[in-house]
Design goal:
By secondary structure, this protein is an alpha/beta fold. The chain has 2 domains: 11-143 and 205-245, Rossmann fold; 147-202, N-terminal domain of TfIIb (Single Sheet). Helices cover 27% and strands 35% of the residues. The protein has 7 helices and 11 strands. The chain has helices at 11-14, 20-33, 50-57, 69-78, 118-131, 145-150, 206-216; strands at residues 40-44, 61-66, 87-90, 102-107, 132-143, 155-159, 163-172, 177-188, 191-202, 218-225, 238-245.
Length: 249
């Protein structure tokens, strides 16, 4: 029932609507706005490596980090023929340890929300700060509490010719966690095989994450609407954070 274990082999097919290129374009917009020219990056909770690959195609030396060995296997296959191939590492973000510093840290698709213990999330942000070179930039996005609360009782369906995935969301106000159980049916020859997973996301507030960033030592913290250089609007579903390490030239 571990998240992204049974789902890994079908993840890319079920998320074809995710515009990874637009996400990386927004990263570029932010680092250009900060007068940065990063040469290295860590893609935190990189999953199947879609963002890692796009950053590497821009010429960055990329390390992709994820706690799911199954997702990293998919990432490794995706990048197998690349000349500037990312390095993929299996680690939890709250245990992040890189061999050397990087200029850019990114964390896409509400991955920090999957750290459902706030102390662990605080530590993951502290580790991201430690991983950055002086002046480095950290960019990540999260689902807003409004979005996660609205998922309570909702049923969702994703499918293609070989995969059928149905899931139902439940939000617990006491724990501040949105849980969604998945039933996954995957075709294997003439047979459909059923598996299941449970995913959980913590509804972190803007104020809470800003506090975590400040406590880690980050400065120049800004919060944006979804891939837009403006303040989040009421009812925003996803917001982006940008923060810097140390003095800015």
């Amino acid at each position: 029932m571990d998240a992204y274990k049974a789902l890994a082999a079908s993840y890319d097919r079920l998320t074809e609507d995710v515009d990874y290129a637009a996400v990386v374009d927004f990263y570029q917009l932010l680092w250009q706005r900060e007068n940065l020219s990063p040469r290295s990056a860590v893609d935190l909770a990189c999953g199947t490596g879609s963002v890692s690959v796009l950053l590497a195609e821009l010429g960055l030396q990329v390390i992709g980090v994820d706690m799911s060995a199954e997702m990293l296997c998919q990432a490794d296959q995706k990048a197998a023929e690349m000349e500037n191939r990312p390095l993929f590492v299996c680690q939890k973000l709250q245990h992040l340890h890189l061999p050397k510093g990087v200029d850019l840290a990114v964390c896409a698709l509400d991955s920090l929300d999957y750290i459902t213990n706030p102390d662990d999330c605080r530590e993951a942000i502290r580790r991201a700060y430690k991983a950055l070179n002086p002046g480095g930039c950290f960019v990540f996005d999260v689902n807003t509490p409004e979005k996660l609360r609205a998922m309570d009782g909702q049923i969702f369906l994703d499918e293609d010719d070989d995969v059928y995935c149905v899931w139902r969301g439940e939000f617990d106000e006491k724990t501040n966690i949105c849980t969604y159980g998945m039933d996954i049916f995957q075709r294997e020859g003439e047979t459909w095989c059923r598996s299941g997973e449970v995913h959980e996301e913590y509804a972190y507030s803007r104020q809470q994450l800003t506090e975590f960033l400040k406590d880690a030592g980050f400065t120049h913290i800004e919060v944006f609407a979804d891939r837009q250089l403006c303040e989040p609007r009421p009812g925003e579903q996803r917001i982006y954070f940008k923060a810097r390490k140390g003095k800015i030239k």
